[in-house]
């Protein structure tokens, strides 16, 4: 049979050079003479004997516990190998500890969630009791009617507030003669201050009305220069400044001329509290305000509460009302 191995000459390793590993093995001594065959056999036996001896020596070393001594520190029993093994063990221990800690934290979280669920169950039970009570109240026609009336009142109040703000309530503004009718007739309640820019008492009235306007959205607070609206000054018969006129649905219903009964001390007529003006405006029905009673004032003083408001403290040369020419 023809061999698939390539021949490389008549040397000792001729049959093994450039051999095809996938081809069938042929007799390595084929084609040799008797002397050469004998020589190759002796060499083969010698190699086999040495390999067998080396294998026996290795077996003996490992059986005696000396295996790997000739491999240095990198051998399985060397220092470097042992340090590596120790490091691997530490890493494994650390990973195991971290895993245990994670499991413990997860267990604590599950426990907390269970407690929270139990608490929620209790809260839901309380909510159920509250809902039952509401259902009982809802079952009462009188309570239901009262609640519906209250809700309707609150909604109407919010709507009125929004409407008033859209009309200019909530601030103290100056208007012109051309704006007079529109401003006075579009709101239910209007407080209009006729002033003169050079009169000190008009400045005092400005001061107090600026404080009142943002508080009482139910009434519109405006002012007009008396010199620039002669028609309405004549029509309303304004003779003394400052004059505060209260309008209801466009009709003048009351007026405050000068500082009538506003002063805290009659000897100082220009010094008076904002609440005095609030009380007067409330007496016309334009705003809702009640002066604290003496008993309430004493209780407020005990609690350290001071009623809000100011007193105009500037000294004025002329204490009398100023007449317009």
From TrEMBL:
Residues 19-107 are annotated as: Disordered. InterPro entries: Thioredoxin-like_sf, Thioredoxin_domain. Residues 47-69 have a biased composition (Basic and acidic residues). CDD domains: Phd_like_TxnDC9. Residues 174-261 form the Thioredoxin domain. Signal peptide: none annotated. It comes from the Eukaryota. This is Thioredoxin domain-containing protein. It comes from Triparma verrucosa. The lineage of its organism: Eukaryota, Sar, Stramenopiles, Ochrophyta, Bolidophyceae.
């Amino acid at each position: 049979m023809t061999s698939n191995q390539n021949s490389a000459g008549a040397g000792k390793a001729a049959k093994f050079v450039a051999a095809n590993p996938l081809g069938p093995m042929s007799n390595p001594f084929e084609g040799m003479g008797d002397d050469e065959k004998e020589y190759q056999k002796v060499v083969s036996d010698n190699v086999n004997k040495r390999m067998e001896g080396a294998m026996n020596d290795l077996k003996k070393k490992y059986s005696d516990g000396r295996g790997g001594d000739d491999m240095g520190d990198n051998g399985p029993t060397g220092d470097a190998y042992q340090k590596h093994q120790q490091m691997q063990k530490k890493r494994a221990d650390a990973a195991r500890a971290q895993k245990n800690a994670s499991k413990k934290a997860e267990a604590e979280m599950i426990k907390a969630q269970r407690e929270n669920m139990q608490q929620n169950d209790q809260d839901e039970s309380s909510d159920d009791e509250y809902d039952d009570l509401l259902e009982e109240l809802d079952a009462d026609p009188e309570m239901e009617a009262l609640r519906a009336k209250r809700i309707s009142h609150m909604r109407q109040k919010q709507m009125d507030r929004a409407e008033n703000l859209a009309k200019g309530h909530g601030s103290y503004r100056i208007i012109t003669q051309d704006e007079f009718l529109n401003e006075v007739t579009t709101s239910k309640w209007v407080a209009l201050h006729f002033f003169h820019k050079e009169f000190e008492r008009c400045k005092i009235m400005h001061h107090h009305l600026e404080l009142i306007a943002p508080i009482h959205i139910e009434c519109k607070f405006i002012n007009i220069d008396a010199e620039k609206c002669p028609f309405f000054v004549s029509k309303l018969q304004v003779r003394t400044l400052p004059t505060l006129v209260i309008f209801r649905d466009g009709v003048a219903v009351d007026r405050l001329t000068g500082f009538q009964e506003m002063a805290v001390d009659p000897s100082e007529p220009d010094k008076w509290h904002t609440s005095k003006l609030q009380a007067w405006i409330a007496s016309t029905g334009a705003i809702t305000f009640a002066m604290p009673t003496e008993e309430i004032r004493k209780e407020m003083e005990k609690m350290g509460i001071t009623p809000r408001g100011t007193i105009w403290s500037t000294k004025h040369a002329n204490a009398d009302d100023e007449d317009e020419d």
